[in-house]
Design brief:
30% helix, globular, 9 helices, 23% strand, seven-stranded mixed beta sheet, four-stranded antiparallel beta sheet
Length: 335
């Protein structure tokens, strides 16, 4: 297979995983992007990094985007070439916003762009290869598909379902000035969990997926009170009142499987989660941390106090697209 383009570019979003109870499975694409361009050459590989990671990430063949690009070319039998790469990075590294998953998907998408064939390295392949490299699909899936995703793995194969979150999902990221390696965060987890805690999380994760799909956020979206004849409003005879969307979201973001176990590794983050939830906000640890994510709009007074405490605050949209090619013959196409 030949390369059809020699100058291509992609844009890939940051992601937040877990979202409380959805450990290693639920993710959200965020409106914060890394933009990467590649010029295929006959010379040596060189990488220029601006923004996040500048001066720290490798600027040669060891760069994760470069390694993923080469993996993608190998996957489709395309020739390897010299690479001149330019990265404009906005996703913080080591903060729980999916920077490694985004780099992997950027590299694979750049390989697809260089090949320029819509039949190769589609969304399913990006998800499968990206999960193989990353180790789990929770950040990879929203980086590929956009929106919210529920992802899983079975016998070496991965899958994902994309959801369109309702307007109540209005992410705000609280990013600290320190990093936390995912390996360190995972090392804090126990090898076994209590059955009651697993059941607790299963119910909240199911509720969270329903809310991310739009249930409970409008009339007619839920049916309560069997035999009452009332749907969606909860006002029929014998039907309980339907909790409002905010109350449902607060319940849906409770967790017993990972966040509390990680408190000693990132006490500031868990203290912020506690403070935000006490203030009535559906806050969670983003991925493995240490970033904290509120899934709903945060009052300005709270934002001011968080900034004064040293947190960088980002109001973010939900990214609906996932990775996008912005230059090359497949620009604007979806996998």
């Amino acid at each position: 297979m030949q390369l059809r383009d020699d100058f291509v570019a992609v844009s890939v979003p940051a992601t937040s995983a877990n979202l409380g109870p959805g450990f290693d499975s639920v993710g959200l694409a965020l409106g914060l992007h890394d933009d990467v361009s590649v010029h295929a050459t006959t010379g040596r590989t060189s990488v220029v990094v601006e923004g996040e990671g500048a001066g720290h990430v490798p600027e040669d063949e060891d760069n994760l985007v470069v390694r993923s690009l080469r993996l993608g070319l190998d996957r489709v039998g395309a020739p390897q070439v010299g690479i001149r790469m330019h990265c404009t990075n906005r996703i913080p590294h080591g903060r729980g916003l999916g920077s490694s998953a985004s780099a992997i998907i950027a590299g694979l998408a750049l390989a697809r762009a260089l090949v320029g064939d819509p039949e190769v390295l589609g969304a399913d392949e990006l998800l499968e290869i990206g999960t193989d490299v990353e180790g789990h699909p929770d950040n990879v899936a929203p980086a590929v598909l956009g929106g919210a995703t529920v992802a899983w793995c079975e016998r070496g194969r991965s899958g994902a379902l994309r959801l369109d979150p309702p307007a109540i999902i209005s992410p705000v990221a609280f990013v600290p000035d320190f990093e936390l390696a995912t390996s360190a965060a995972r090392a804090a987890l126990p090898s076994r969990v209590d059955h009651h805690d697993a059941a607790y999380n299963a119910s909240r994760a199911a509720l969270l997926a329903a809310l991310l799909a739009g249930a409970g956020t409008g009339a007619g979206s839920l049916s309560l009170g069997a035999g009452s004849g009332a749907e969606g409003t909860g006002t029929g005879a014998g039907s309980p009142a339907l909790p409002d969307a905010h109350a449902l979201l607060m319940e849906a973001t409770r967790d017993r499987l990972h966040q509390e176990y990680r408190r000693s590794a990132m006490p500031q983050s868990l203290a912020l989660v506690d403070w935000l939830r006490d203030a009535g906000l559906a806050a969670v640890v983003s991925g493995a941390g240490p970033t904290v994510l509120s899934l709903e709009t945060v009052p300005e007074t709270v934002l001011v106090q968080a900034r004064q405490a040293g947190w960088a605050v980002h109001r973010l949209d939900v990214d609906p697209h996932g990775v996008r090619q912005t230059r090359g013959r497949l620009a604007g196409s979806r996998g």
